[in-house]
Structure formats: C-alpha cells, structure tokens
Write a structure and sequence with these properties.
Length: 621
C-alpha cells in the first residue's frame, strides 16, 4: 500500500471550520418539506432541542455548570422496602457486605394512612426496629420515615441510623396531615437530634408523571420551604442546608436526566448564595432510578433502563445513587435483581471509571443548553410560587397536581401512538417471556399482626385543617400491561393464544419490514399471527377456520392481487379487515394500519372482535 498518498493525522491540529450556511442548506435538503423546523423537537416542557449546537450556528452559549457534585466516588445507596423487618435486615447485610456503601430503607407509611397493604418495612415498635438494624452499622443506614420520624426516633434513642422526615411527601402520598404543623413538631427534634434530616423529594412527582421542570420545581420549592422553616427556628443557615437532602428521580432519557441533576444543583447553589452561603458542598443530591419507567412485561429490559438512568445520575453529579431492582413492578426484589442493581453501580464506578471524571458532560453545547433551559424555567416558576404565597399554598390549591395530570395525559397520548416507545412493551414485545426468579417466600402475617397492634397504640396527630390532593403513582407501561393481561387470560381459558391471520402480498424483499411491523403491532396486545402466503387458497382457509378478522399486508408488487384477495376474504365471511402497506385507493371500505395509529384504541377494538373478556374497557388508566 502506498502510504505516501495519506496525509498523517495530527491530534493537535484543529478541526476544519464549520460552514454554518452550507450545513443549513444540506440539513434542509435532507429534512425535505418543512425544512430545518422538522428537525427541531420539543420536550414536554416545551424546551426546543435543535439538531446541532455549535457557535457558528448562533445557538451555543457558555455553560453555567454547578460548582459542586461529581464526588470521588459517589455513595452507592441501595433502596430497600421489604415489609418483614427480619428479611429486610438480611437484605441490608447482603448489600453492605457486597459493595454498597449504604442502604436506604423505606419505613411503612400504609398503615398510618389506614390502608392494609404495606409499602415499606413494618417498623411500628422498638422491637421491629431492633430486628431491622441488628448487626448493621447505623451510620450506613438511612430510614425514610415520611411523617413518622418522631416515632422512629423514640423507638431508638441510642441508635445511630439517620432518619429522614418528609411531611410534605407524606401528605402527597395520601396521609391527611398538615405538613406545616407536622414540620413544627419536628423542628425541635431536628435541632436536638443529629440523626434527623429532611428530604425534599421529587420522586412522588416523577412517579405521578411530572416533566423535568415540574419535578425540579416541586423538589426545590419543598427544599426552600424546609430551609426557611429550619432557619426560622434559629438553626444557622449552613446547618439547615446540611440537614436537608434533595432527592430526584432519573430515568432512561439520558440527557434530560443528566441535565436535571446539574440544573438542580445549580439552582440550589444559587439559592444558598442569595442567603450569603457560598459553599457548594452544602447541596446534597441523591438520585434514584424512577419506577415509572419500569415494566412488568419483558422485565429484563428494566436492567437497561436503570443502567442508562444510573449513568445519567452519576454524569449529572449526584452525591448518592439508589438503583431500583429490575423486578420491582412484579414482586419483592429477588436476590438476582438486588445483586444486579448493586453491581450496576460497582461497574460504573470501578470498571467504567465514572468516579474519576468531574462533570463528564462539560463542553457539550447540547447539555449546556438543556441545563440552562431547565434552570431558567424552574427559577421563573420558583419565583411565581414565592409571589403567590409559597409552596404549601400552591399544593392546597392543587395547581401543581393538576398541571402534572395534564402532562401525564399528554405523555399517555404519545405512548398510545408510539411517538414514545417502550421497548419490550409497545415496541418489540415478546409473547413468550422468561420470568425472573421468584424471591424467597416470606410469611408476612406475623409481622403484619404485630405492626397493626403496635400502630393502634401510637399517638397520631389530628387530621389536617386543609387537604392536599395526593399524587397518583403511574408506571408508563400500565395501559399496555392491562391489554396483555386480558389476552393472556383468554389464552389460558381457551388453551391457545388469540391469533390473527396475516396475508402477505408481494415479494419478500418488500414485505419483511412491513410484516415485522404488523406482527409487533399485534404482539403489543398479546395477539399472535399466522402468515398466509399469497398463493394459498385464502378463501378456503378463512372458511375452514372461521376467521372473523384478518390483516392484509401489501407490497408494491402485490397491489393487483390485493383486490382479488380482499374480495375473496369478504366472501368467505371475514367481516373485519385491516390493510397495511401499499393499499390501492379503489379497494373498497377498509381500515388502514399506519404508523401513528392509536395502539390502545386499536387493540381494544380488536380484542372486542376476538371476544376477549374485558374489551372496550378503560385500558388507558
């Protein structure tokens, strides 16, 4: 080979200058009708995302990066919520012995709300707390107690485990309390007991469907509310900030999650600086992989989702990260799921080397844009909250909750038409799934009986003088899971999976992508397909098997044959036909399957045609 023809590449040599006008012309040509506007997308908050960011294009501004964050290394803080204290204790010890730096334990709030299905560890007396913390160093444990922090502190006056209180979060979960009054009860305890801290939690908002701006606004407004309350109780501002932790959810939208963490820290640093405190180390952010992105269907994909979310949290500068086990939507997490959640962080830290890089996204004009846009919008909203009377008044008016409900509905519409896709659920679903291993069986009745008896004896604050509308918890996959559950029940009852014949008309090269699309579409609702070749006696097959529904997939070379086949199918008694692909205009009345159709509505109708029980119901949730 003649190497003289190749100019050597010099790493120090600058890149060729960008010709902005030439790029715009080339990009507009590719975009076609609509021009560059077609390449701009918007987040649910309305933040515009352009196809390219560079100084010659006039859309690249200097980054305003937060000063804190990116610890070396971050704290691996694994979450736990098994109801049985003894079982939870075993899980905590396993995590701490195998690489976790700390554990975050959700203490049950359900019995306090009057419901009977526990949502955390059943700690309602000192004996239960002792079983939970046995042989575990207290400094490695954070007990998330919601509105029950005072109870837990009384159970363990000598224990060193940190206790996190969040009366605002407890009210948003449905506990009928006055958060301000509860906070007043906590203030003296926070001052006297170094174990007690407050958390300003964005996770309930994320679980309810909030956008990045909405979640960040809620978490920071709560953080500011707690900060002011502690300062008003004569706690020094530095100490008040040290006793509050900001908790945010991260999901599989890598860049938005990363920018959300950066923007949250940037704003918290700015708020403290306005109070005369210039110490970025006082801002502590813990990230947790959001449960709303997790699915029961093909749950193994959840491992990929939490990996992306965990990477986003670390790259965004979270001080601590909690990774939710991949099988959480299905069951109490198994040993495998807990190990994978823990090892995910160990790999990011020790093998990928994430702990050795400060602000990995620095220098990205795109990340700078997202961080700045989020921070500016959230700051404007925080100012409006303050002008209108503060965060509690906003919550009582239910304005933030209603705004989140609208965002949740908007996202649901995008999911229904698959403008947003859930891999393994609404895209590339698998009909025959391999379930994760089950958790160890545990008899919860003894722990539940003890908790119920102990809970009755505990002093409770009176009901709130006003009501805060609670936030619902919604996973994105739930409407699709209901469809699949209906189809699976029909398959069990009939002994065979509901099936639709798909007639393939055209050359294989024309049909491969189309048939894959059709089969994936049907699998979303738990429906199998039977391919019928164009040279088969389709009418005879339809009569013999009493098909009521069929789909005809038409390639360019199958247009002429399509008219004949559709006529034959109708004559054979197939009274519901869907056509996909190159559909001739004169083929008669029929329904078309096209990208962008409402998948949930389509399957609800199809399930009704197939006689699947529960069709024409409320699948959207």
């Amino acid at each position: 080979m003649d190497r003289s023809a190749y100019e050597p590449f010099e790493l120090a040599r600058p890149f060729l200058p960008l010709d902005a006008e030439a790029w715009r012309k080339a990009a507009a040509k590719v975009a076609g009708e609509g021009g560059l506007e077609r390449l701009i997308r918007r987040t649910l908050d309305g933040i515009a995302i352009e196809p390219l960011y560079a100084p010659p294009l006039g859309n690249a501004e200097a980054d305003r990066a937060p000063r804190g964050g990116w610890p070396s290394p971050w704290t691996i803080a694994q979450p736990h919520a098994h109801p049985d204290p003894a079982t939870a204790n075993r899980h905590l010890r396993e995590d701490l012995a195998n690489g976790a730096d700390s554990v975050v334990v959700r203490v049950d709030q359900a019995l306090a709300r009057g419901t009977d299905t526990p949502d955390g560890v059943l700690v309602y007396d000192a004996a239960a707390l002792s079983r939970l913390l046995q042989d575990i160093p207290g400094q490695a444990v954070l007990l998330e107690a919601g509105a029950r922090a005072k109870e837990l502190a009384a159970f363990a006056p000598a224990a060193t485990a940190a206790i996190a209180a969040d009366p605002v979060g407890a009210a948003l979960e449905g506990l009928r309390i006055d958060p301000e009054r509860e906070l007043d009860r906590l203030i003296s305890l926070v001052r006297e007991d170094a174990r007690i801290r407050l958390i300003a939690d964005g996770r309930p908002w994320h679980a309810a469907g909030a956008s990045e701006v909405q979640e960040l606004t809620a978490a920071l407004a709560c953080w500011l509310f707690y900060l002011r309350a502690l300062e008003s109780a004569n706690l020094a501002l530095e100490e008040a900030a040290r006793r509050i932790e900001l908790v945010l959810a991260v999901d599989d939208d890598l860049f938005l999650s990363l920018a959300k963490i950066r923007a949250g820290r940037l704003l918290a640093e700015r708020i403290l600086k306005a109070g005369g405190i210039d110490d970025p180390a006082l801002v502590r952010i813990r990230a947790e992989t959001g449960e709303r992105m997790l699915a029961k269907l093909d749950p193994w994909v959840n491992i990929l989702r939490t990996t992306v979310a965990g990477f986003a949290a670390v790259a965004g500068g979270a001080d601590a990260l909690s990774v939710v086990p991949f099988d959480r939507p299905l069951q109490q997490p198994s040993l495998l799921a807990r190990r994978l959640a823990r090892n995910l962080q160990l790999i990011l830290r020790d093998e990928v080397g994430m702990a050795r890089v400060r602000d990995p996204a620095a220098g990205s004009w795109y990340v700078a844009h997202l961080t700045r846009a989020l921070a500016e919008e959230v700051f404007a909203r925080l100012r409006r909250v303050e002008e209108e009377g503060g965060w509690l008044r906003a919550l009582v008016s239910a304005g933030p909750q209603e705004e989140v409900a609208r965002t949740r509905e908007k996202r649901a519409q995008l999911l229904a038409i698959r403008a947003l896709e859930l891999t393994g659920v609404s895209a590339f679903p698998i009909l025959e799934e391999r379930a994760p291993p089950p958790p160890d069986p545990v008899d919860l009745e003894p722990a539940l009986a003890r908790a119920r008896a102990a809970a009755r004896s505990l002093e409770r604050a009176g009901p709130a003088s006003f009501a805060i509308e609670p936030l619902p918890r919604r996973r994105l996959a739930e409407p699709f899971e209901r469809l699949r559950a209906r189809a699976e029940e029909a398959a069990r009852a009939r002994g065979t999976r509901p099936t639709i014949p798909v007639v393939a008309l055209g050359r294989p090269s024309e049909l491969h992508e189309l048939l894959t699309w059709v089969e994936n579409l049907l699998a979303v609702g738990g429906i199998a397909t039977e391919r019928l070749a164009s040279d088969a006696d389709i009418a005879a097959i339809a009569r013999a098997r009493a098909f009521r529904c069929a789909i005809v997939s038409i390639g360019a070379s199958g247009v002429e044959k399509a008219r004949e086949v559709v006529t034959a199918l109708r004559a054979a008694g197939v009274d519901r036909l869907w056509l996909a692909g190159t559909v001739p205009d004169d083929i008669g009345p029929s329904e078309r399957l096209v990208p962008g159709l409402d998948v949930l509505a389509f399957h609800d109708k199809l399930h009704g045609e197939l006689g699947i029980a529960g069709a024409n119901g409320e699948d959207r949730g």
